[in-house]
Structure formats: C-alpha cells, structure tokens
Design goal:
The chain is an alpha/beta fold and 192 residues long. It is built from eight helices and six strands; from the N terminus they run βαβαβαβααβαβαα. The protein is 37% helix and 17% strand. Its EC number is 2.7.7.18.
C-alpha cells in the first residue's frame, strides 16, 4: 500500500487541502492520502491554533465521504513540537507493509534543508511536491533528486488564515469550507 502523508495544522481544513489531497490520491501512484493533523508545527507559533481535537474532528467531517482519504492523529501522542522524520519513522515501524511518501508544497521544499534529519527523509522516502504561489523556484539539486517528484496539482491560493479572518469578521466562508465543517465551526462559534 502506497500512502501519501499530507501534514498540516488544518486550522481549519478547507477545500484547498481537500482538492490537493484528493488529486494526489487519484492522480499519482499513491493508493491513499492520510492527512496528518499536527498539534504544533516547529516553524509556526501555536498561539492561533485551535485545540488539536477540534481540528482532528473537522478533518474527519471533511473527508467522511471520501474512501481515498484518511486521517491520523499519530502526532498527538508524540513529543511536541512534532518533527516529520520522527513521525515517518514511527509510522514505518507500525505499518511495515506500507510505503510512505511525503507530500509538500514548493514553499516547504525551499526550506527543507532546515528540517530535522532532512537527509534521512530524502534517503528513505519519496517526496511529492505540489506548486504554491509565490514560493519561487525549486533548487536544481532538489528538483533533480531521484526521490523528489514535482506533481502538477491544481494551484489554489486559499489560506486558513484568510478563512479565520473571514470567520472573525462574520463574513461568508461558503465554498471555502465543506458544509459539515462550516456547520461545526458555526455551532461551536470557533475562530470568532
């Protein structure tokens, strides 16, 4: 089983995340894509993060009707902040018959050399890179690395930051969030 891992805060999960995950699951050699809900990104401040269980629940709501997508809370039980190499290692030990690939945006690839044990990731895991606006060009050395594949996934410039701002200001997020997620956000008065 070939599993793509799409890490994120999903604060909240939106249609951009879902379109990307579905595209990767159905238009590459992957069998499925798991969304890895990260409790804390080591490169981002955590002060604006919604509680991890709310974010996990929203992901479950968003993908409930899609058999090509899954979700994992594996990082909830790991030391914080979470490091991708530690998560990959843990998952590989737990699921010996699965082959994991890392899905990341071009913007992350530009700073990939700053990640903990990035060489180990490159040595052992395929990296599927999708375009991100304003991320600049991928360095030639990484672009030509045998473990890196650039995937021409649809480019959607939608951000969770923008959605949170809309929610805080009482503006519509219709078509940005799935209906179940929007209903959950409004029922719990999240991001207001």
């Amino acid at each position: 089983m070939r599993v793509g891992l799409l890490f994120g805060s999903f604060n909240p999960i939106h249609i951009g995340h879902l379109i990307l995950a579905n595209y990767m699951a159905t238009n590459t050699t992957l069998d499925t894509v798991w969304l890895v809900v990260s409790p804390q990104n080591p490169f981002k401040p955590s002060n604006s993060l919604l509680h991890e269980f709310d974010r996990l629940h929203m992901v479950r709501l968003a993908i409930a009707d899609n058999a090509d997508l899954g979700v994992t809370d594996i990082e909830f039980r790991m030391p914080k902040p979470s490091y991708t190499i530690d998560t990959l290692t843990y998952l590989q030990e737990k699921y010996l018959k699965y082959q994991f690939s890392l899905i990341m945006g071009e913007d992350n690839l530009a700073t990939f050399h700053k990640w903990k044990n990035y060489e180990q990731i490159l040595d052992h895991y395929e990296i599927l890179v999708y375009p991100r606006s304003g991320s600049g060009k991928i360095t030639e050395s990484l672009k030509e690395h045998p473990k890196v594949t650039v995937v021409p996934a649809p480019l959607l410039d939608i951000s969770a930051t923008f959605i949170r701002k809309c929610l805080k200001e009482g503006k519509s997020t219709r078509y940005l969030l799935t209906e179940p997620v929007a209903e959950y956000v409004h029922a719990k008065k999240l991001y207001q």
